Amino acid sequence: MHSIPVSTTNRREIVESLKRARNELDKGHVVCIFAEGAICRTGHLLPFKRGFEKIVEGKNIPIIPVHLDQLWGSVFSFKEGRFFWKWPKKFSYPVTVSFGAPLPSAASVNQVRNAVLELESDAFRYRRTAGDLLHSRFIEIAKRHWFSFCMADTTGAALTYGKTLIGALLLARWVKKTCPKETMIGVILPASVAGSLVNIAILLAGKIPVNLNFTAGSEATAAALAQCKIKTIITSRVFLTKADLETVDGMVFLEEIRKTFGALDKALGTLTALLPAHWLKRRYVKNQKPDDLAAVIFSSGSTGAPKGVMLSHRNIVSNVEGIAQIIQFKPNDRIMGVLPLFHSFGFTGTLWLPLLVGFGVVYHPNPTDAKTIGETVQKYQATLLISTSTFYAGYLRRCTKEEFASLRYLIAGAEKLRDQVAQGYQEKFGLTILEGYGCTELAPVVSVNTPDVVHGNEKQIGNKPGTVGHPIPGVTVKVVDPETEQPLAPGEEGLLLVKGPNLMLGYLGQPHLTEQALRGGWYVTGDIASVDEDGFIRITDRLSRFSKIGGEMVPHMKIEEVINGVLGSAASVVTAIPDEQRGEKLIAFYAQNGIKKEELWEKLNQSELPKLWIPKRENLHLIDSIPLLGSGKVDLKKVKAMALKHTQKPA
Asked: Domain residues for 575?
């Protein structure tokens, strides 16, 4: 085996190296190229250099895509911010080498890189072992970090990993005894220590937790209960009172459950938790596989009726692994958990991510309570916050720089990050909000920006403002023409498709909807996006958020951006309703008291928007506030209903 060194700076030497590689091909030798041009520092597959195009130019020689999986984390990787000088996590380190189908010599850089990314996605299934179950992984982490801080909330509850395991085992015994024949158990609890313990306990009991969206109304809750055939709902009387929720049949209350635990039960639970991890797993992990159902999460229903998304252990574990590969967590990290557990980002990001990686989490049940959130971040020295652009705007107004001084990572998802919010955080806190993207059906993280890495003379870009980052490891994406389904070139806008080990099992009891959502193993996101030359994804709009007016496709988000620019803040939403003459008519709602609809309409006409895209003056409506779902997303279903109601009013 021979090697051909390639200079990173001397152009003449680079050309000479490419010539040597061409000569080796002419001799009939195999030439292996590391197309990234550098060892990655970000945890992502880097953009490919174009050198290999020159090597095969004019030759009828196939290009074989090859992927090496699980190198990240070895002593040779840049994990923990350095090469070599770290203790290996494993001895006899496992590496998966995957080979793809041959590509023609005319294949472009992006085609080859995409083929390697698909190999990476497929390789994730070889990582899975029989023990890759959420509760099994938690047992291992809890035993390893027994005395370390695990979780707390703003009620004053605080637990170490050891106490969390003891509490979860006690609750698991109750669930097993009380619900022996039930498959799914409902949960109506906020982001809290209690909510986390109940979710862990249900899995330890061999059941499936279903966190019910208590903000969606009684009709949606009843539909979810019926779909899942839930008979038992674990909740809290105190929480129901605070949230002004009514009791329903099947509810059992934590206040009453706690009273059933006597001194003997607690002692037995403690002794059980002290047993070796392998014994605990034999007792509490029986006949379960990574592809078994781990949770049902109902989609937000921002554009229609909520659907029950079935997620497996493999889906969630793979998502956590992908996140942990690109964000350098430390044992003393603490995440501020503000998103509800019925929200997929809350469920994976603030429940299972810390539990499976081994750091702490602090919960507060109200994501809009900026004052308490700021105080709690400061009190517990939280280092990571996941929220939405809408909620971040509230923290910007109410929280102080001192309160947010401990934060290292701010991640935004669920909706587009507004420029004013991102700029405000830079100016007030000196912090960069990293925008990400995901879907409930993908467990949920698809992509996220990460901090740039500067190491010596090497700078690797992890963050491109305005994009939602690279796909996380294991996830691959492609953009296709919505009508022909043909792949599009970098930078071209089209329908975003996603594939990876985080792809849901399907929609509960709705195989026809599952079939509609998938195309050849790819999930159809319904989002219009582009992927640039460096692999960063830019979300443009929802396919469902376009209107066809006079034969032209009109994007709602583009109109909202211009209206928000006029208002000086993100306080608008655009929808459309049927129109006999033009097919659809645009309706815009805005929540800003300082401007009248006539002034807004005039400024829209002075903007660069095509006249066809501007709502009529009578279709601009001032409202008190933009309706939101519990997840922080705009409630587009309610907005549509408001639009219909306004147009039905007599003139």
From this structure: 550-648
